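Subject: for your reference before the review

Hello V.,

The reviewers asked for a structural picture of the protein, and I figured it would be easier to keep everything in one thread rather than splitting it across files. Below is the amino acid sequence we used in the manuscript, unchanged from the supplementary table.
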Amino acid sequence: MNRNQQQDEITISLSEILKVLRRKMLVIIAFAIFFAMISAFVNIFIITPKYSSTTKLYVIGSDTITSISDLQIGSSLTKDYIQLIQSRPVVQTVIDNLELNYTYNELVSEISITNPTDTRMLNITVTDEDPYLSKEIADEFAKVSIEKIHEIMLAEEPRMVEDGVVDTRPVSPNKKKNVIMWTIGGTFFVMFIIIISYLLDDTLKSEDDIEDKLGLTTLGEIPLEEQHQPIFKDERFNFINKLLEPLRKDFRKLCRKLPLARFKFLKNLARKLTRR
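And here is what came back from the structure prediction:
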């Protein structure tokens, strides 16, 4: 019984998997290039680039800093100022002054306020699809914030350190990063399909398979070649058919193993790819 169990066990050899991937290397490279081209097209022509502009304010706690407590008070004031700058009175005033077609939530989502560590500086960054508009909004936020801080908190007005600058270099999307991620993700996806189809394939392909799985010795071989209808019928795309044929075989084997009855789309796709 133990011998039968040992014969039924399926051993997975890493070297065999590497050989399968090596044989499919041309297909893997082709799909990696395909995913890279798709990512480049989406990032260049579909995703709208965004630009940012930053203004800087200096928070004044007292006229002079004589102790660590004065610095701590100034740092705590910056946290209050951050909340005030994002408040509805300030944001709505900016919208009214610039006559923006934004709601409160839409404009708040475009601003970012940071306080560098161990400083009393406030950086107000605005990110928008228009680089010139992002500069105008950032500058207006600084002006309105200075007025509201003095009016609401009865504190000394922060000082403007730096106005916003028009930067025509987009901060998003990161085309290089996205193309690399898409290429790596697409490559691993194709490799995953190839490996899964290999592991689920229990057909006998060689004399070694017959001897290993059945314990029989082969007397001879009869060559048999299956003819499948190409994906692209135009002769100009024969090179694409040759590239896709190995992957189509793997996909056909995978479809035979998986229950596709509940997935109509996959069932139709499998039928189309595996038709003869």
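For the response letter, the relevant points are probably these. The first helix runs from residue 2 to 8. The radius of gyration is 32 Å.

Happy to draft the paragraph if you're swamped.

O.
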